[in-house]
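Researcher: Let's try something more involved. This one mixes different molecule types, so please make sure each is placed in the same coordinate frame as the others.
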Amino acid sequence: MPASPFVPVIPAGGAGTRLWPLSRRSRPKFLLDLTGDGRSLLQSTVERLLPLADHPPIVVTGVDHEESVREQLAEVGSAHVVPEPSPRNSMPAIALAAALVEREHPEAVIGSFAADHLIGDHEAFLRAVGIARRAAEGGDLVTLGIAPTHPATGFGYIEQGAPDGADGASAELPSGAHRVVRFVEKPDRERAEEFLASGRFLWNAGMFVVRASVLLDELAVQIPSLAAGVREIAAAHGTAQHQEVLERIWPRLTSIAIDHALAEPLAADGKVVVVPADLGWDDVGDFAALARQLREHRKAAESSEGEETVPDAGDVRVLGSVRVDAVSSRATVYGATDRLIALVGLDGISIVDTEDALLVLADEQAQDLSVLVARLERHGLGHLR
Amino acid sequence: MPASPFVPVIPAGGAGTRLWPLSRRSRPKFLLDLTGDGRSLLQSTVERLLPLADHPPIVVTGVDHEESVREQLAEVGSAHVVPEPSPRNSMPAIALAAALVEREHPEAVIGSFAADHLIGDHEAFLRAVGIARRAAEGGDLVTLGIAPTHPATGFGYIEQGAPDGADGASAELPSGAHRVVRFVEKPDRERAEEFLASGRFLWNAGMFVVRASVLLDELAVQIPSLAAGVREIAAAHGTAQHQEVLERIWPRLTSIAIDHALAEPLAADGKVVVVPADLGWDDVGDFAALARQLREHRKAAESSEGEETVPDAGDVRVLGSVRVDAVSSRATVYGATDRLIALVGLDGISIVDTEDALLVLADEQAQDLSVLVARLERHGLGHLR
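Model: All components are placed in one shared frame. Result:
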């Protein structure tokens, strides 16, 4: 059993332009119920972590979403919301949470998990976090690595060392943890295939478990002003000066991802550990991923059966209350309008029906959606983002 | 020059379920502007025929559409609207028009042309009708036959005899006219390919030119009650009894297509003539045909050009005022809503965006739309037809 108290940290940010117009600036991905189970991704993330939490989870989010986040959290349990005055990428958000935890619980281990990913296997997740917590108590930065199922080019990779002290450095690690050799940024297809074939590489899902004090002390070595800044904000927490201190310091913090600020340099120093895990994890990064999720987990839309002259509806999944009828179609439909949506002969198409925008997208080109969203502004349609 | 006066007849009916939800029961295909030139198919049909008409064209339409038809006709010129109390297929409609013409102009030749087809080559059309009128003055039933461009299975075919009297029966025909051997109903693919290869077969586009009195006299032989019925209705036209006579007789008239009632039996008797013609004709029978038309005739939607990082919009045609943005898509969009329609990676897709129904259809399965429309009723959505 881990000895130190555990505090979950949930950075809730990100534009999610690859799920537009389902996700909008005003309603980002983590606030959406993308599984149809009645809970947003944020709510599911908090619920998954609550059984592990020795103190309330900390959710760091933009001031624009603070109110929506508080409303959603009120439905699932106790959590502490920390608003960011402006987006500064993941390192300042996680470091601020670490500084708040360090002040109250100096021995605590934090675990940082994105607010907008899906985890299918809760048991495996709890087991992996348990191993990661024990490894983190030894002073390492610990990450969960996802066993890759295909040569994905959309994720960064983690190269793990040999297990069980064979590389001379892992002897002290708990079973199931491996020293990390290096982090690798999103590879091209060829390298991704090499990674998959080697069996040594894992997907980087951005899940980090570490003592709050270790994170801040290591950050103080890498980017001293950032560590000092968040510690100063945390010190002012609960005082009359807090808002003034936050607004003065926050905009000057280095905007950087935790991977670049800490994980990569610490891996080079042999201070990072990975716990390989098969969690049924999905970052639901675009409509192709979401369609795959819904195809696995949700039943097909009602279709007219039992009549010889009616071709099969095919395989149509619906998220939302919209009414759909289909002939020979494999498609995913998102909508809550009161229109009928009729589909004929579609193969691998996603449709998002909203009041002010309609998207029709071929799943295999789901990545290209960001191109279209990026130019909304230029076409005078920025209000639709 | 033809010697007899010419009166165009335009049956304006048909459900057009293969263009739903663009066409509806309350707004059938012939009332729609499907080319974006500001005129409905009915208006274009009337305009095309007006230069030939010695007396105002007669438009026969259902009572439900009488008002819309009158409004549209007021914009393009003088025409006579004859309402049908109920749909009885094409023969009663054309025969009633013939009876009205016969009463006023006993020597007149009528030409019957569907209200919802497109003709691309007006010159060729005028030439072909001129030949057909001269042939019709000889007492034959004359049809225009479309030179087939592919082995279509959605049309009936006309087999023409040898030209120039070689078959012993065509010596008296004007140049460009051929005796018809037989009419053939929609063939399967294999027969359609044989027809195309033979060079003897033409598409039956339902265009008939004939003396009004010949049509009625021949009909009196084939279906005596039908000929007598329409002549009785025509005799009452303009009298106080007209409505009573119409409502008494019309429901008892045989519901039958002109092809079965007259063209097929008269062809067997050697009394039908065809004028082969290359008219740029299209019956715009489904969304695949409409997409083809719009691809040939309309410019692509505006797309963002000149920026290296933006993939091509592709080839997107838009009918209506809806705003469309696309990435790498070949698609056709119909809509007048004020939503943005965004397309990514589509290939051969038609999208119809209306207030109460959205259709997304693969053009290559356009024929299957009728299956879906047919079951609207069963799903309690009959009001959407």
